[in-house]
Specification:
The protein is of the alpha/beta class and 330 residues long. 39% of the residues lie in helices and 15% in strands. The strands form 2 sheets. Strands 1, 4, 5, 6, 7, 8, 9, 10, 11 and 12 form a 10-stranded mixed beta sheet that branches. The longest helix is centred in the first third of the chain and has 25 residues, at 2-26. Residues 5-49, 58-77 and 301-330 have low confidence and may be disordered.
Length: 330
């Protein structure tokens, strides 16, 4: 009698445990990042993006557990993929802001301080509620070949000089919520300079967007070590300034977001870039990928995402300087 009763009670439990194990084995991994491509010798193929590298945001106030950002179902609901478009090099003309605002899609703009229309661009963007970043000039690798402009950070500067310069540039772009690099292929490889930069960024409560103008950038790993929220660029939208290339890159940005859950694209206020974004507006809005300011991605970083960032920081160094043949821009 007791033996029969034990069979009745135990067998269903064993069957349930076996069923859970089968289900766990049959569940696909959540949005694996594409493998890091080797440095290409041909520019014919346009790869997607490197594995996402994200530095930590402030700890969530909710007691709810956190998971990496992705497009997979979570807790019975679907997390829609999201993408951000950042337009660099603002400050030459206020008309650039007018054209971008007229697109009717969420964007973030990165303003270079000290240009003829920088102050007017910052003021008007703030009035219109457009997200602002400081587009911080930094030392390129090509000595004498490129001029990053006023307020540049150099590897020969000491920590105090770097922090003073960043502080002055932030004062010229009031309301900036983050910082990304203008040029900087040499500076973003310099750990000592980056540490001073991240210290100042952290003091202002800002985030870091690594434009990845060099494959050897240490921006994300220094941000992680400094506790600065950070994210990196996935796609250069207008590495080649022609509408066919730009159109393909915008679509690649959307596909990257679908594959990985998030994607960041950086472009410039070229007429061709603005024309393509206007042309594809309907396609973007109907793509199933939500367009958001870049802060919406970086501020949603999670503890699990930070672990992924640490791995990518160690393994992703050979990922290539620029998706879409952007290596020419320092």
């Amino acid at each position: 009698m007791l033996a029969s009763l034990a069979v009745v009670l135990i067998v269903p439990l064993l069957n349930g445990e076996r069923r859970e194990q089968r289900e766990a084995r049959n569940t696909a991994p959540a949005d694996p990042a594409p493998s890091v491509p080797a440095r290409r010798t041909s520019s014919a193929a346009i790869p997607l993006a490197r594995p996402r590298r994200v530095a930590p945001a402030p700890a969530p106030t909710s007691a709810r557990s956190t998971v990496p950002r992705s497009a997979r179902p979570a807790a019975g609901r679907f997390i829609a993929p999201r993408a951000s478009i950042v337009i660099d090099d603002l400050g030459q003309s206020l008309s650039h802001l007018e054209q971008l605002d007229g697109l009717g899609i969420p964007i973030s703009i990165a303003v270079i301080p000290g240009l003829r229309a920088s102050a007017a661009t910052v003021s008007e963007a703030s009035r219109r509620g457009i997200e602002l970043l400081l587009h911080q000039p930094m030392e390129p690798r090509e000595e004498g070949g490129k001029n990053p402009g006023k307020g540049v950070l150099l590897t020969t500067m000491d920590a105090e000089a770097i922090r003073d310069q960043v502080r002055a540039n932030l004062a010229a772009v009031p309301g900036a919520v983050g910082v990304n690099n203008h040029m900087g292929s040499r500076f973003t490889e310099d750990t000592v300079g980056l540490e001073a930069l991240m210290t100042e960024i952290g003091q202002h409560g800002l985030f870091w967007l690594d434009s990845r103008t060099t494959a050897a950038t240490r921006g994300i790993e220094v941000a992680i070590a400094s506790g600065v929220p950070a994210i990196e660029r996935d796609i250069f939208i207008d590495a080649e300034v022609n509408v066919d290339f730009i159109r393909g890159q915008v679509r690649t940005l959307i596909e990257t977001a679908r594959l990985r859950g998030t994607a960041v694209g950086i472009g410039h206020p070229h007429p061709e870039t603005i024309a393509v974004l206007r042309e594809l507006r309907g396609e973007l809005l109907a793509s199933g990928v939500t367009l958001v300011p870049v802060s919406a991605l970086v501020r949603n970083s999670t503890a699990a995402g930070t672990a992924l960032a640490a791995v990518a920081a160690r393994q992703g160094r050979e990922g290539g300087a620029a998706t879409g043949r952007k290596a020419a821009r320092p």
